[in-house]
Model the fold of this input.
Amino acid sequence: MARFEHFGPNLVGRDYAVGDIHGHFSRLEATLDRARFDASRDRLFSVDDLVDRGPESPRALEWLEQPWFHAVQGNHEVLTRQFVDGDPQLNPRDYLNSGGAWFMQSPVETQRLFADRFARLPVALEVETAQGLVGLVHAHCPFSSWTTLREYLTGALPYAIELEEAFQWSRARLKQRDESEVRDVRAVVVGHTPLRRPRRLGNVWHIDTAGWSEGYFSLLELGQLRVVQA
Ligand SMILES: [Mn+2]
Done:
């Protein structure tokens, strides 16, 4: 199971990142239409949390089939795995409160299908652009260098499952208003924490603007690092 994925440059179109989707694929489609997203040449990279809370969580699998759509693994995808495995760390009531009802009520075979697909998502990915490398991870890069993150996720350094606590759950940079740069990468893009507008701290972009709730979806164009207002 590859925990890290690398994408070469898009030579024919644009690349965008989007924040947490949480079962609101129709809303995202409307945003993409307004941004004139062209699925025949553009690519969309999701910092994930595809499911829970919104009404269209089951559509996550259909989206993951699309050749222009790529995602890293969010904490909500990890929750599906924990539920299927009967992990004692998962409190079913917490999961229900996090929007997991659709999953808990699905047939066991369906649950397995989703959990297996989500388990194959990389924990982080990187995209080459003409201006340099852009990295995506759901919540946080706990290292001062992207190379270190890559080495942990590709097996060059021994992987510890505890790291996922940081990659998929941590809000440390926002809490500490940490403006330090992550080296060896032009920008890192994360979601996980809903904000009123996109926020850059150092070279880390926080782009969950709660399109799944009262907010809107922000598309970050990865070449110019510009947020598209759609
Ligand atoms: Mn999250």
